[in-house]
Specification:
The protein is of the alpha/beta class. It has helices spanning about 30-45, 55-65, 100-105, 125-140, 220-235, 245-255, 280-290, and strands at about 5-10, 45-50, 75-80, 115-120, 120-125, 145-150, 165-170, 175-190, 190-195, 200-205, 210-215, 260-265, 270. It has seven helices and 13 strands. The strands form two sheets. Strands 1, 2, 3, 4, 6, 7, 8, 9, 10, 11 and 12 form an eleven-stranded mixed sheet that branches. Strands 5-13 form a two-stranded antiparallel ribbon.
């Protein structure tokens, strides 16, 4: 069975100022998602599952899903605040979605094979999909052994502002031992740094591994996630802004020694549209990759 790609596309892109998932950056109006699907398909993925919000369903089907007809199987699931396990309760005044790992849970009823998780607005690079597909194919029928594609932090910075990254600690066997979310990372005078709570700065080497939310799981991950989400709602369900994140889930599973998570190091360069100013740079990078023969000018006919 071919692996599945789960694309998290429910975010509204508040810093970017709109539905950046639907914004064209390729010469024929391709989105970053189009390049992700193209890379995944040629790496051996057999199905795409999009997680979106129902309030832009019609636009999404017309402008995105229709492109993949006769190319690859596609399903769409919806991340809504009320989509919680039976018996769980939450603050009825809440309007903010529950976070990335809640979005992953939306795929539980449609994914039966090993699967990857990515963000809709991140460009990960062809090589990363190949490494991820190879891992997932070998994971068929297994449990409790996941993976994360680890990028060099120096390959993930934005030229338009600071970024937040999950900074990873990796043991000698290439397994993830911890992941810590660090904000306001930037390169200043050739040095990559971020502020600490005491006002000083922590420095990161260029090749420090970071998470860009590119994960590989087997379907047992859904059971762990649902159990943890119920506990999360019991503790924090009355809050209006708390979120249920993938890195937090992975950290908890590693600490409890229920799973291992292998870090697949990649030299690929990430780019994405974090700020509106990023779009021009992304367009230029895509055009350069087309000139180099990495992609055809028109991805989908």
């Amino acid at each position: 069975m071919k692996p599945t790609l789960l694309i998290l596309a429910a975010g509204m892109g508040s810093r970017y100022g709109g539905l950046k998932q639907l914004d064209g950056i390729g010469p024929c109006g391709e989105t970053i998602m189009d390049y992700s699907v193209f890379d995944a398909k040629r790496a051996g993925f057999g199905k795409i599952v999009f997680v979106i919000r129902s309030n832009f369903k019609d636009d999404f089907f017309e402008r995105i899903v229709s492109r993949y007809t006769n190319h690859i199987d596609v399903e769409v699931v919806y991340q809504e605040i009320e989509n919680v396990p039976d018996g769980c309760t939450f603050n009825p005044e809440r309007t903010k979605p529950w976070g990335t790992n809640h979005a992953v849970l939306m795929g539980k009823n449609v994914i039966r094979s090993p699967f990857a998780v990515i963000n809709a607005d991140d460009f990960y690079g062809q090589q990363s999909y190949g490494e991820l597909a190879e891992f997932l194919v070998a994971s068929e029928g297994k449990r409790n052994h996941y993976c994360m594609v680890g990028y060099h932090v120096g390959n993930t910075l934005s030229e338009s502002g600071t970024v937040s990254r999950g900074v990873c600690s990796v043991d000698s066997n290439h397994f993830l031992s911890s992941i810590v979310e660090c904000g306001k990372i930037e390169r200043v005078g050739g040095v990559i740094r971020y502020p600490k709570t005491d006002g000083s700065f922590a420095v990161l080497e260029d090749d420090t591994p970071v998470s860009m939310n590119m994960w590989g799981f087997t379907p047992d991950y859904f059971d762990y996630s649902e159990e943890a989400f119920c506990a999360f709602l019991e503790k924090r369900g009355q809050e209006l802004t708390s979120e249920f994140y993938i890195p937090t889930m992975i950290n908890d599973l590693i600490v409890s020694k229920k799973i291992t998570c292998e870090v697949l190091r990649t030299p690929s360069k990430w780019f994405g549209v974090t700020y509106s100013e990023d779009k021009e740079q992304v367009v230029a990078k895509i055009n350069q990759l087309i000139k180099e023969g990495c992609y055809p000018k028109q991805l989908w006919e």
